[in-house]
Amino acid sequence: MRFAAGLSKLKGLLQEILPQNAGEWALRLGPEAGFATIGAVMAPEGTPLQDRAALALEDFAIGAGSSFLGSGLGRGVGGVMYPKGGLPDLERAEKLARAMTAGDILAAPLPMLSPRPIASGVYERAMEGQSKREREAAEQAEEERHIQEALATSVLTGTGALGLYGGTSLLG
Asked: I want to staple 40 with a disulfide (CB 3.0 to 4.6 A). Which of 52, 102, 108, 142 is the partner?
């Protein structure tokens, strides 16, 4: 019985915090979709499309989730502060809308604190690849340095030998 009452309250709350039409959905989720797209586009070079899509979905889910959570908590606090019958309906609706907005604003830092396993994996793989490339470049540079040292040594040795032997052939 208590569970059913809780579900009824939850349903009422969701009806109040969820957008009611396409325009409201666009205003509510548009920024989240935009930030998710930017995050996917700015993924490290070489990130596969499927990883970029997963990264965008993760960003979107975290952003939208925190927004709805903040709005829900704001609406819940507003419902306690402005109970039914305490204010005229229009004034109460305005105050509840402000409480939802305040909750949404207060929840804004949540995405920065949220774990991001997909993003972590994408950037770790990029760093591994980067480290491997850097390691290969360093090994190649080291080989080139050895070749240049060997060449310089042979030139210096040859020049020194020429000076020492007066330009005559060492072989005969």
From this structure: 52
